[in-house]
Design brief:
- The structure is a single chain.
- By secondary structure, this protein is α/β, with parallel strands linked by helices.
- It has helices at about 35-50, 65-75, 105-120, 140-150, 165-170, 195-200, 240-250, 255-260, 265-275, 290-295, 305-315, 325-330; strands at about 10, 15-20, 20-25, 55-60, 85-90, 90, 100, 125-130, 155-160, 175-180, 205-210, 280-285.
- The strands form three sheets. It has an eight-stranded parallel β-barrel, surrounded by five helices. The protein has a two-stranded antiparallel ribbon with strand order 1-2. A two-stranded antiparallel sheet has the order 6-7.
- β4 (about 55-60), α2 and β5 form a beta-alpha-beta unit.
- α1 (about 35-50) crosses α2 (about 65-75) and α5 runs parallel beside α6.
Length: about 325
Amino acid sequence: MTTTKIHEVRLGATGPAVGRIALGAMGMSGAYGASDDAESIATIHAALDSGVGLIDTGDFYGAGHNEMLIGKAIAERPREDVVLSVKFGALRGPDGGFGGVDNRPVALRNFLTYSLRRLGVDYIDIYRPARLDPDVPIEDTVGAIGELIDAGYVRHVGLSEVGPETIRRAAAVRPIVDLQIEYSLISRGIEARILPVCRELGIGVTAYGVLSRGLLSDAIQPGTTFAADDFRAHSPRFQGENLDRNLELIRALDEIAARKHASVAQLAIAWALTRGEDIVPVIGTRRRERWTEAVDALDIVLTDEELSTIESAVPAERVAGERYATAQMAMLDSER
């Protein structure tokens, strides 16, 4: 049986109603190699038709391409049917290189102005700094977003990849609806300290990387190589022996998935869905068939015994390689 309409949950204690899974649009703008705009737009439409609601983007994805693509896709849709989550602050050079982070109030007001124009909307539902700016107190950044809420340009404050202390400081300024952070069967670092703080403060989690950028799927095989413009070409988990070891580890899920008449990707999504309704998996895809596969995972029911078997088969501590390259890991407040 296929779920044709995704049921809704509340995002955090103060956030909007969103679908049980969300759509991540980053891959539609070159993060994983070339993409097709027509297919990407069709995927956005398919996601909205299934009741997804929340679409996640960043103003720096494809140097604005991602927002313009989403703007085109939602132009004929009722605004209230779409919950737009936008990350800001990452600086890009004309060569596509990374130029640091700028979360100053004056900068984020500038970023927002262009996001509204590219998306073709009057307000952003959830606005969040993509990374913590070490030179700007989080109170200043959240306070500036709060002023934009008061002015009607933003509805809610979100955070991304920050740790417990930063979460508490931010929440003392304005209500925080969600923390966007990587969380999957093989990336479970938030469970020890970050997730308990979110739950204490009534903050939801929008979990990206649920499929670990394709590791938890059938999309990558031993010997797979990645184009220079593919994020995974520079990610430790996808390099040489690390990739071979990780794929060998994940193959242990094949038999379990087969018994559930599911793919490994669906098993990984189903696992994430068991972590609590305050966790909304953000499924990054740019193809309709992959979105359909993700939606079908909502119908998979995992028993406690099956969950134990899955977690024993793929212990997170045995995964080879960090989730980002060294320089990027150093920027993550969530890893401190």
